[in-house]
Amino acid sequence: MVWAMMVTRADMGRRHPNPRLAKIHYSYSVEELARLFGVHKNTVRTWCKQGLEPIDDQRPILIRGQDARRFLAERRVCRALDQFTPLASSPHSAASYIEASTVGLANDRIISACR
Known about the structure:
Order of helices and strands: EHHEHHH
Largest sheet: 2 strands, antiparallel
Shape: globular
CATH architecture: Orthogonal Bundle
């Protein structure tokens, strides 16, 4: 085994970014968010395509810390709901279960964000 070629976990990006790292009163560029969460800047751009809202349509792309925090928290909840059962697309998935039971507006918001 060659020691110079080993890739450690610290060298790779974080699998689950911590939403609480983003300051809610700051605005971040794509590069700053990528550095903050330890992911590639293309990952942040993919998040923008998936629903992370930039401040406006101008360059440089700026994202509110509060929006980044909310997006990543909802994304984490959605992934947890999808892993509730082995067949997430089945009628017995967690999303279907919560949707069928009218627990409250917060759950409806999470369900609609997961679709």
